[in-house]
Amino acid sequence: MVNEYQSGMNQLIKNNLLGIKELTLEEINLIFQTADNFKDVINRPIKRVPSLRDVTIANIFFENSTRTKLSFELAEKRLSADVINFSSSSSSVKKGETLIDTVNNILSMKVDMIVIRHSSSGAPHFLAKHIDSKIVNAGDGTHEHPTQALLDAYSIRERLGSIEGKKVVIVGDILHSRVALSNIFALQKLGAEVMVCGPATLIPKYISTLGVKVELDIKKALNWCDAANILRIQLERQKMPYFPSLREYILYYGVNEEIVKALDKEIIILHPGPINRGIEITSSVADADNALILDQVENGVAIRMAILYLLASKLE
Amino acid sequence: MQKRLLLDSQLLQITIQRLCQHLIENHNDFSSTVILGLQPRGVFLANRIQKVIQELEGCHVDIGYLDTTFHRDDFRRRVVPKKASETRVPFLIEDKAVILVDDVLFTGRSVRAAMDAMISFGRPTKVELLVLIDRLYTRQLPIEANYVGKHVNTLASQYVEVGLKEQSGDDSIWLMNIKVE
């Protein structure tokens, strides 16, 4: 009923959210507790609170995104922040402007916080070293996607009660996936056991040094886990073929009703979207009751509100 | 450190009884009245008031909890940010009379934030404020309480420490000369 006196911190240690790797368990728990409150807010008849009414946030997307951008924008608007959007396809980046120049130009218009997505790994970290602003990483190359990992973990926690001791398998293109790496860090910090599963060509050679299990057989992987996070096959990131054909991938790694029904237990299914229906996951699995895909989208707004709120509280 | 006892357990109980009698006079059977306790300590008071009224009148009293953290005007101006608590208003307050319940009325800013938070749940016909302790002459906004447990003359530098048995195991309300963190 009253949780003001719960143990734990009131404020994030970090000034930016660059990756899950830098977060502590206490910080993740603070984000989750704050998201609980915002989830309540976004389910009210009036879904807006005035906390960030004097804060301006720029969403800078150097790479295409629909869901993440919409989710951030909605989170910002629900917090009453002023929002500006920028996408590289229609900007001076095409004319040769550098990343720092672009961002400094935006900041000189009195912007307080930056949400950035970039196709180069480490771009937000680079920016954080050179500019004085609060930065939220909305996905950098094949490195990290911290808000996605937090909302995935939050959705698992919501459905299973806790994450500690749970077994989670991440299926698909681990090599090119920033979602996979952030998920591994987040789940391990929260005390889960993590396994990755996919074609050997799409599993990074040294992934086991992170302390994750590797399994090439999808049936064994699903039988082991409590929750399966099925990743999208990112055809746009594959400059060379990593598997002989899409048909073969579907045959060996596609998650279908038959496989799920044959398991000894019920598992929950996550997917960061957008779904390639009939490729990595069939419609019957994606639309089943144990699939959290739409919960993930709802929780995404609450998690992003929590992160923006907590970082904004550190603005001077 | 100097401190003065404002209310002890017995006086607090009598005060709550008196406030409840006053509420019953104005709101009859509470069929179109709801109580909203402000987090954190207003919630405990609201619970006690609900219990007393239900015992005295034998009627049902709707009660909700309101957290004002996201509506405060001192966000980013506090050294240590406040942590949000649960808001639970399981009914619409449209066309109801609302009684806001809090422990101490000081600057009036929490109550302003509470009114802001409250309108997310509908448009009440009337809003009233009940506080246990009213610190006189310290208001920064034009807000006054309708029901007051005890009026106290205080300096702005002083601090009212509210201990309730739900939280600290003991009912006692003190006026302190220095705030103890």
Number of structurally distinct domains of chain B:
1
Low-confidence stretches of chain B: none
Question: Based on CA inertia axes, which overall geometry of chain B fits?
Answer: globular
How are the strands of the largest sheet of chain B arranged?
3-2-4-5-6
Number of strands of chain A: 9
Q: Please, how many helices of chain A? A: 11
Strand order of the largest sheet of chain A: 7-6-5-8-9
Percent of residues in helices of chain A: 25-40%
Overall mean pLDDT of chain B: 91
Helix content of chain B: 25-40%
- Name of the CATH architecture of the largest domain in chain A: 3-Layer(aba) Sandwich
Uncertain runs of chain A: 1-5
Indicate the overall shape of chain A. Answer: globular
Architecture overview:
The complex is a heterodimer of chains A (316) and B (181). Chain A has 316 residues and is an alpha/beta fold. Chain A has helices at residues 25-41, 67-78, 99-107, 123-130, 146-160, 178-189, 218-224, 246-253, 257-261, 283-286, 293-312, and strands at 56-61, 82-87, 113-118, 134-140, 167-171, 193-197, 213-215, 227-230, 268-270. A 5-stranded parallel β-sheet of chain A has the order 7-6-5-8-9. A 4-stranded parallel β-sheet of chain A has the order 2-1-3-4, sandwiched between helices. Chain A is globular, with a radius of gyration of 19 Å. Chain A starts with 24 loop residues before the first helix and ends with a helix. With 181 residues, chain B is of the alpha/beta class. Chain B has one domain (9-23, 31-72, 84-158): Rossmann fold (3-Layer(aba) Sandwich), CATH 3.40.50.2020. Chain B is built from 4 helices and 8 strands; from the N terminus they run E-H-E-H-E-E-H-E-E-E-H-E. Chain B has helices at residues 9-27, 41-57, 109-118, 165-168; strands at 3-7, 33-38, 62-66, 97-105, 126-136, 147-153, 159-163, 172-176. In chain B, the strands form 2 sheets. Chain B has a 5-stranded parallel β-sheet. In chain B, helix 1 packs across helix 2. The interface between A and B is medium-sized, with 24 and 28 residues.
